[in-house]
C-alpha cells in the first residue's frame, strides 16, 4: 500500500510560466497518473502531487518594484498564471503551495529552530546574483568592461571601493552579480558531508540519472563545502520570512522554498513520527527538478533534513533543459516558448506527448513547432483515431471481436494454425504474419519494461514503442483492406483486421493513459471499455479485453486535424 509523493520545484512567479515549467509539470503529472494506473487495484495506495510558487526573495521584490506594483498583488497575479497553466493542461495537483501561505510561514520558523545547532552567525562577503538568488565564488566572476570585453577579476581587487557602475557577471549563467558585505546567519553544511556521501553511495538511485549522482559525489569529495549563508539583513530584503527571534534578519529564499516540501505534508512533528502517513509520504518522495537547481536539492536539502532529524526523500530526478537556439529558455532572457499559445491552438494531450516524445531527461533539447503538428495530426489523428474509426465506422466490430478474442487469449499454437490456414486458403501477403509477430514482440517488451521505464521517466522509450504498435496495426488493416472483401470465404480475414485494429487501440490507450488522459478517456467510451479494464495493465495483451466494440457514432469526431 504505497504512499507516493511527487513534487515539482516551486516556481518563481516573477514572470509567466514557459515551456520549461510546463515540461517539469508534465513529467510529474504523467508520473502521478502512471502510479495511479499501476496501483489502481490497491485501494490503500495514495499518490500526492504538489507544486506551487516560490514567492519571497530579492528577485521577486525587485521585479515588483520595477513595475511599481505592490509585491503581494504582483505575486497573487503571477501565481495565478501557473495555476491557470495547470488547469488548461489537465495537470491535477493535490496542493498548489504558495510560500506566502500561512501554514508555510510557521513551518519555516519551526524548521529553522530544528536546525539551530548547525546555524551560526558570521560576516558575509561575496558575489551575489539576484537573478539566480545565490552567491558565487571569485573564480566564477568576470568584469564586463564598457567596451563589452570580459576580464577575470584580479586577486588584489579592493572590495571596499568597488563603485556601483562597474558590471560583474557570473560565468555560468551570465547573470549580473553584486558584491555584498554583511552580517548573516550561516549553515554549517560541512557537518554532514560524510553522512551525505555515504547516503548517496549506499543509495545509487537517490539521484537520477546516475550521471548527476556522480557530479554531486565529485563536488562533495573534491570541493570545499563552505558554510551557506541562510539569511539576509532585513533592511536589504524585507519581502521574506523573518528569522525566528531576530527581526533584523530575513530567511534566505532557498531555505524558505525547500521547506515547502515539508509544509505540503503536514507539521514537522507529524512528519517525524514514524507511524504517520506524512512520514511515509516523506520517505517516498520523488523530487523532479531541472539540472539548474541540482545543488540545492541534492546537497543543501538533504543536509538540512539530516540536521533536523527528518527522513530524506526517496530520490531526486534531474532533467535537462529546453533550449532556444542553443541557449537555455529562461524568464530573465525572455527567449521562451509560451505553452498557453500551443494549448489554445492544439490540445493538452498533444502538447504533453509532443514534448515528452521529443525529449529525454538526459539531454537538452530544442523545441520545434513541428512537434505539435506531427503529434496531433500525424500520431493522434492519423494513426490512433484513424485506427479506431476505420475499424468501427463502416463495420460493426462486435462479431469480429467475439470471434477472435478467445483465439488470441487461448494459446499460441491455435493462433499459428489458424493463421496458417488463413494463409493457405486466402494466399494472404506476408504483411499479416510478420506484422503480427512484431506486435506480439512489442507487447512482450512492454509487459516486461513498461513499469520500469515509466518509473525512470524514460517516457520517450515507451511512446516510441506505442507508435510502432499503431503503425503495425494500420499496416495490417491496409493490407487486408476489409472494405474490399465481399467474399464470404474471406470473412475471417476481414474480421481479423477489425479485431486487431480495435484491440491494438485498446492496449495503446491503457498504456498511454498517463500521457493522454483526455483522448484515451473518449476512446475508452467509443471502444466500450469499462473503467476497471481501462485501468488494468494486466489486460495489455491481445484478446484480453472483455469489450464488444461499439458501433462508431456517425459524425463523432474524437479529434480533428489542425492545419
Ligand atoms: O529555481 N528547461 O524557480 P524557477 C527545462 N524557485 N526546465 C526548465 C527550464 C528550461 N529551460 N527553465 C525552467 C526556481 N525550468 C526556484 C525553485 S524549489 C524549492 C525552488 C523548470 O522559476 C525546471 O524544473 O527558476 C527548473 O528547475 C525550474 O523550472 C526552475 O524554476
From TrEMBL:
<dbReference type="InterPro" id="IPR014729">
    <property type="entry name" value="Rossmann-like_a/b/a_fold"/>
</dbReference>
<dbReference type="GO" id="GO:0004825">
    <property type="term" value="F:methionine-tRNA ligase activity"/>
</dbReference>
<dbReference type="Pfam" id="PF09334">
    <property type="entry name" value="tRNA-synt_1g"/>
</dbReference>
<dbReference type="InterPro" id="IPR041872">
    <property type="entry name" value="Anticodon_Met"/>
</dbReference>
<dbReference type="InterPro" id="IPR001412">
    <property type="entry name" value="aa-tRNA-synth_I_CS"/>
</dbReference>
<dbReference type="Pfam" id="PF19303">
    <property type="entry name" value="Anticodon_3"/>
</dbReference>
<keyword id="KW-0547">Nucleotide-binding</keyword>
<keyword id="KW-0648">Protein biosynthesis</keyword>
<comment type="similarity">
    <text>Belongs to the class-I aminoacyl-tRNA synthetase family.</text>
</comment>
<keyword id="KW-0436">Ligase</keyword>
<dbReference type="InterPro" id="IPR023457">
    <property type="entry name" value="Met-tRNA_synth_2"/>
</dbReference>
<dbReference type="InterPro" id="IPR033911">
    <property type="entry name" value="MetRS_core"/>
</dbReference>
<keyword id="KW-0030">Aminoacyl-tRNA synthetase</keyword>
<dbReference type="InterPro" id="IPR014758">
    <property type="entry name" value="Met-tRNA_synth"/>
</dbReference>
<keyword id="KW-0067">ATP-binding</keyword>
<protein>
    <recommendedName>
        <fullName>methionine--tRNA ligase</fullName>
        <ecNumber>6.1.1.10</ecNumber>
    </recommendedName>
</protein>
<dbReference type="InterPro" id="IPR009080">
    <property type="entry name" value="tRNAsynth_Ia_anticodon-bd"/>
</dbReference>
<dbReference type="InterPro" id="IPR015413">
    <property type="entry name" value="Methionyl/Leucyl_tRNA_Synth"/>
</dbReference>
<feature type="domain" description="Methionyl/Leucyl tRNA synthetase">
    <location>
        <begin position="5"/>
        <end position="391"/>
    </location>
</feature>
<feature type="domain" description="Methionyl-tRNA synthetase anticodon-binding">
    <location>
        <begin position="448"/>
        <end position="528"/>
    </location>
</feature>
<dbReference type="GO" id="GO:0005737">
    <property type="term" value="C:cytoplasm"/>
</dbReference>
<dbReference type="GO" id="GO:0006431">
    <property type="term" value="P:methionyl-tRNA aminoacylation"/>
</dbReference>
<dbReference type="GO" id="GO:0005524">
    <property type="term" value="F:ATP binding"/>
</dbReference>
Amino acid at each position: 500500500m504505497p504512499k507516493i509523493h511527487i513534487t515539482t520545484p516551486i516556481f518563481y512567479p516573477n514572470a509567466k510560466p514557459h515551456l520549461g515549467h510546463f515540461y517539469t509539470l508534465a513529467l510529474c503529472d504523467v508520473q502521478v497518473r502512471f502510479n495511479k494506473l499501476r496501483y489502481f487495484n490497491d485501494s490503500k495506495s495514495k499518490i500526492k502531487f504538489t507544486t506551487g510558487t516560490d514567492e519571497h526573495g530579492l528577485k521577486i521584490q525587485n521585479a515588483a518594484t520595477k513595475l511599481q506594483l505592490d509585491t503581494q498583488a504582483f505575486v497573487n497575479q503571477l501565481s495565478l498564471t501557473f495555476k491557470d497553466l495547470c488547469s488548461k493542461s489537465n495537470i491535477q495537483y493535490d496542493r498548489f503551495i504558495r510560500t506566502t501561505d500561512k501554514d508555510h510561514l510557521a513551518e519555516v520558523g519551526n524548521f529553522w529552530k530544528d536546525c539551530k545547532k548547525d546555524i551560526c552567525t558570521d560576516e558575509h562577503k561575496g558575489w551575489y546574483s539576484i537573478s539566480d538568488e545565490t552567491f558565487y565564488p571569485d573564480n566564477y566572476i568576470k568584469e564586463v568592461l564598457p567596451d563589452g570585453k570580459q576580464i577575470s577579476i584580479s586577486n588584489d581587487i579592493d572590495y571596499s571601493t568597488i563603485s556601483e557602475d562597474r558590471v560583474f557577471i557570473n560565468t555560468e549563467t551570465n547573470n549580473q552579480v553584486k558584491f555584498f558585505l554583511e552580517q548573516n546567519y550561516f549553515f554549517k553544511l560541512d557537518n554532514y558531508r560524510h553522512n551525505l556521501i555515504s547516503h548517496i553511495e549506499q543509495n545509487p538511485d537517490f539521484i537520477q540519472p546516475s550521471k548527476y549522482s556522480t557530479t554531486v559525489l565529485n563536488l562533495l569529495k573534491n570541493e570545499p563545502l563552505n558554510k551557506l549563508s541562510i539569511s539576509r539583513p532585513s533592511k536589504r530584503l524585507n519581502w521574506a520570512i523573518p528569522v525566528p527571534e531576530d527581526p533584523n534578519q530575513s530567511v534566505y529564499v532557498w531555505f524558505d522554498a525547500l521547506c515547502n516540501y515539508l509544509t505540503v505534508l503536514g507539521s514537522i512533528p507529524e512528519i517525524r513520527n514514524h507511524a504517520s502517513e506524512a512520514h511515509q509520504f516523506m520517505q517516498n518522495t520523488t523530487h523532479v527538478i531541472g539540472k539548474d537547481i541540482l545543488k540545492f536539492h541534492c546537497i543543501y536539502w538533504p543536509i538540512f533534513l539530516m540536521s533536523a532529524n527528518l527522513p530524506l526523500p526517496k530520490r531526486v530526478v534531474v532533467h535537462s533543459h529546453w533550449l532556444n537556439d542553443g541557449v537555455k529558455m529562461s524568464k530573465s532572457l525572455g527567449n521562451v516558448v509560451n505553452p498557453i499559445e500551443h494549448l489554445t491552438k492544439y490540445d493538452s494531450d498533444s502538447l504533453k506527448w509532443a514534448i515528452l516524445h521529443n525529449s529525454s531527461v538526459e539531454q537538452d533539447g530544442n523545441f520545434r513547432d513541428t512537434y505539435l503538428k506531427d503529434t496531433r495530426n500525424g500520431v493522434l489523428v492519423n494513426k490512433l483515431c484513424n485506427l479506431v474509426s476505420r475499424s468501427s465506422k463502416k463495420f460493426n466490430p462486435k462479431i469480429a471481436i467475439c470471434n477472435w478474442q478467445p483465439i488470441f487469449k487461448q494459446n499460441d499454437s491455435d493462433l499459428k494454425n489458424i493463421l496458417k490456414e488463413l494463409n493457405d486458403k486466402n494466399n494472404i501477403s506476408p504483411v499479416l504474419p510478420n506484422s503480427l509477430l512484431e506486435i506480439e514482440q512489442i507487447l512482450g517488451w512492454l509487459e516486461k519494461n513498461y513499469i520500469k521505464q515509466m518509473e525512470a521517466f524514460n517516457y520517450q522509450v515507451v511512446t516510441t514503442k506505442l507508435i510502432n504498435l499503431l503503425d503495425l496495426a494500420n499496416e495490417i488493416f491496409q493490407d487486408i483492406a476489409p472494405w474490399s472483401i465481399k467474399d464470404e470465404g474471406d470473412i475471417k480475414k476481414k474480421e481479423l483486421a477489425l479485431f486487431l485494429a480495435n484491440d491494438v487501440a485498446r492496449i495503446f490507450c491503457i498504456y498511454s493513459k498517463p500521457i493522454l488522459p483526455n483522448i484515451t478517456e473518449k476512446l475508452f467510451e467509443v471502444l466500450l471499455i469499462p473503467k476497471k479494464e481501462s485501468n488494468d495493465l494486466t489486460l495489455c495483451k491481445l484478446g484480453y479485453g472483455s469489450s464488444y466494440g461499439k458501433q462508431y457514432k456517425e459524425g463523432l469526431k474524437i479529434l480533428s486535424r489542425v492545419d
